[in-house]
From TrEMBL, chain A:
GO terms for cellular component: plasma membrane. Signal peptide: none annotated. GO terms for molecular function: transmembrane transporter activity. It is found in: Cell membrane. This is Ribose transport system permease protein. The lineage of its organism: Bacteria, Pseudomonadati, Pseudomonadota, Alphaproteobacteria, Rhodobacterales. It is a multi-pass membrane protein. PANTHER family: ABC TRANSPORTER PERMEASE PROTEIN YPHD-RELATED-RELATED (PTHR32196). Its main location: membrane. Keywords: Cell membrane, Membrane, Transmembrane, Transmembrane helix. The chain crosses the membrane at residues 12-29, 36-61, 92-115, 121-138, 159-179, 210-230, 242-260, 266-285, 292-308.
TrEMBL record, chain B:
This is Ribose transport system permease protein. PANTHER family: ABC TRANSPORTER PERMEASE PROTEIN YPHD-RELATED, ABC TRANSPORTER PERMEASE PROTEIN YPHD-RELATED-RELATED. It is a multi-pass membrane protein. The chain crosses the membrane at residues 32-53, 65-82, 88-107, 114-134, 154-174, 204-226, 232-252, 259-278, 284-303. Keywords: Cell inner membrane, Cell membrane, Membrane, Transmembrane, Transmembrane helix, Transport. It is found in: Cell membrane. One of its GO terms (cellular component) is plasma membrane. One of its GO terms (molecular function) is transmembrane transporter activity. Pfam families: BPD_transp_2. Its main location: membrane. It comes from the Bacteria.
Amino acid sequence: MVKTLLGRSWIWSWIAAAAAFGLIMLLTQGRGAEELAYAALSFGAFAAIVGLGQMMVITLGPGNVDLSIPATMTLAATLALKGMGSDPGTSLLGLAIAIGVGCGAGLANFALIYLLRLPPIIATLAASLIYQSLAIWSNRGLRIKPPADLADFATGRTIGIPNVALIALVLSVVVWIVLERSVFGRWLLGSGQNLRAARLAGIPTQLVRAVTYTSVAVLAAVAGYLLASFSGGASLNMGQEYLLSSIAVVVIGGTSIAGGNSNVPGIWGASLFLFLVVSMLNSYGLGAGVRMLLTGLIIIGIVIAASTRRGRA
Amino acid sequence: MIRLFARHRILLPAVSLIVLLAATFYMQPRAMSYFGINLLFNLAIPIALATLAQMMIMMVNDIDLSLGAFISLVACITATVLHDQPVLGMAILAALILAYACLGALIHWLELPAIVVTLGMSFVWAGLALTILPSPGGSAPAWLRTVMTVKPPLFPMAVVAAVLIAGLSHVLVIRSGIGTVLRGVGGNAASVGRAGWPLLRLKALAYALAGVFGVLAGMALVGLTTSADANIALRYTLLSIAGVILGGGEFVGGRVSAVGAVIGALTLTLAASFLSFLRLSPDWQIGAQGAILILVLTARLIFTRRDRTQG
């Protein structure tokens, strides 16, 4: 039992998250455990949603990565909040706008990759510059408040769990079922393991890529919509930190960067860990610079630990 | 004509730059002067050096997502330690280059994915930068300021420097023996290893070269801006990748061009100025840079595809 559990690549991110949690509790002598867990679930939820998308893209194989996630988040959030105009009862309209933006951005990314044969890194990078401009142009940096009912929902809780975490959890279950139990999931993993073999086996590999790049953009758009509702409005740099953290949670979570293998539970462990490690360093009274430095070293340490473990197995 | 473009990959980036330059002069004839050109390309020198740093990494099939943070850190050190205690500053910068070499060796030795390790390093560099210079400030060493603002006869400093940098790095990467071997590592690491070359040291050397160019980029940047902050060069990560690709380089296979990389960096810099001359709303400036990137790469696709069909 323990052995099979330790064999799972996602377990390490959970152990790391638990260790960070324990270290904070050690310092506060057990006070504020509930608040900390609540905050970790709230903030971890956003990283988890974008991480799920990035994971699907990375599963497609080497060279596949979506750098347009922050710009898509910002654009979706800006347009959704503009569409809702702070009017009550427009939450679903806003969600529809966000999902529409996500579909558009994802299809545009894929069009660049497929039609122009651009490497995904360059295609999504160039596209993200355009999305960023669209977001600036559409709103001129004005901060529109989300409708009160939506803001209440995004910051609220149900049976003690933050609503945003519940949504992220539902999305994770959906992605897990799609990846592990559906034909599409098999196609995606197959394409990631060997694109040529997958194509020869009759898998519609371009369709798989198109759906994957659209999914990541839609997930980013939903994350942006939720984040803007959660934090009281969209801002132009709201997605910035999610470029690095979306890739970091995928790798820490145990998904192979070489593709063809994905890991949903690890995304959650890694998202919680990333938040907890920052709060841990925070509660030990370290400055912003040292905090970042240690975060970086911890990420590299986990990657090294994961690689040597693979080597022995 | 098309064959000519396909055979010489350097032609397309060069022509893109010339077209863009012609369009800029047409829009704003006053830019066609010593002073105007200097202003247009002033910030191109650090970007060109950053692009060359990225090229060294891409030459061995890796990618560096920490370059912008690294250059910011160098800028912070240059504006503080190097200004106050030149010897200590030099030692720290040398240590940073050594750190880059170790990073390359580590990535090769443990077979780590470079994209992730450099991602982690970007936090480390940014954290160090923030520790050294918590709020924007510092000042450039006087000699550096003099070097960056020198006014050579005939051509402005930016142009002279770009040509010099392109020439020297061309000799280093394309002409020299070690440069050829390094590109070979990107082409087929296994066969370079079989031929008896120490892959670990080669990889470390490629990263060390990237470190050298990164340090030069940071110093050049401070020489121009006279002060630094911890986020001064974060956008250089993406700019440098785009510059290498614009210049005809590729992500895998050791196919890079030093002259192309410099031209790519100049094109990216000019694109921003060109758009402001177009009286385009500033909202669209970033987006138009993306559009120009896509446009140039589309042109490249057309030529390479023709090449393939014509054999």
